[in-house]
Amino acid sequence: MTVLELNNINAFYGQSQALHDISIEVQAGEFVTILGANGAGKSTIMKTIMGLVKAKSGGIVFNGQDITDLPPWERAGIGVGYVPEGRRVFPDLTVEENLKMGAYRVQDNRRIANNLDKSYELFPRLKERRSQLAKTMSGGEQQMLAIARALMLNPKLLLIDEISMGLMPILVNHSLSIVKRLNSEGLTVLMVEQNANKALKVADRGYILKTGKITMHDSSENLRNNSEVVKAYLGE
Ligand code: ATP
After folding, report:
1. pTM of the prediction?
2. Atom 26 in ligand 1: which residue has the minimum CA distance?
3. DSSP-assigned letters across all residues of 135-162
């Protein structure tokens, strides 16, 4: 079953075109990555899927529903979870308040409590620090918080914008292993990433994005063995 389909998306900032004819699809249970350099348009793709940037043309289908014109909060409500670049936690709220903000659309207190328990089980560190202000958490802890917050609405698809940004390699590995675990438990993941090496180790498939255009897509294994990809994105 196809969870997400982007069909020929074109997006602009003013006169400048950031996305050119982007078509991507993600199947249920897959872990898909989009790789690209600085400014390639990775964040713009995430924002377009979330409805924070409006596509000028093209369509987006989520679980069989055309969501091209839905506002962002409705997309979140039907199961699109989003971990933005740079984490963007609420700095002056505690860890637990941040998590509850993630569930702001949920009326059912029991569901909120269950999801809090699940977050704390997944991230014991957040439980220890539940009363700490988010701004005083380390970068890695804030990344965990941003992921846990996105899970509070029980998403069917998790969008992750550059999990590796500003994190030490060991914390990147830790965050990725948690996302991989969520994926192996059934969560569909679409992750944009600059760190191709790490992303291709966890993802099933990848798309290469270059100045707003998809230039290649293949299994992670084939991309890792593609000399062009190795030269441009994997280094020596
Ligand atoms: P990075 O890895 O540096 O975050 P990215 O691949 O996520 O890069 P985007 O942030 O999607 O890239 O940016 C794609 C292009 O759109 C860039 O040329 C960028 O300068 C431009 N752009 C992004 N946001 C805006 C904006 N709000 N207004 C105007 N131009 C923008």
Report:
1. 0.93
2. 13
3. GGS-HHHHHHHHHHHHHTT--SEEEEE-
Backbone φ and ψ for 207, nearest 5 degrees, come out as: -115, 145
Q: Which of ligand 1's atoms lies nearest the C-alpha of 212? A: 14
The pLDDT tens digits for 177-226 are 999 999 999 999 999 999 898 999 999 999 999 999 999 999 999 999 98
Query: 134-179 pLDDT, tens per residue?
Result: 999 888 888 889 999 999 989 999 999 998 887 888 888 988 999 9
Nearest to 7 by CA among 52, 65, 60: 60
Instruction: Kindly state if the Cβ of 48 falls inside 6 Å of ligand 1.
Output: no
Ligand 1 centroid distance, CA of 140 (Å): 24
- With a CB cutoff of 8 Å and minimum separation 6, the contacts of 32 are 24, 26, 189, 190, 191, 203, 204, 205, 206, 207
Determine the Cα–Cα distance for residues 191 and 45; give it in Å rounded to an integer: 10
Atom of ligand 1 nearest to the CA of 45: 11
Output the furthest CA–CA distance in the chain (Å, rounded).
Answer: 52
* Cα distances (angstroms) measured from residue 224 to each of 20, 25, 123, 176, 197: 25, 20, 31, 18, 8
**Rounded to the nearest whole angstrom, what is the distance from the C-alpha of residue 166 to the centroid of ligand 1?**
17
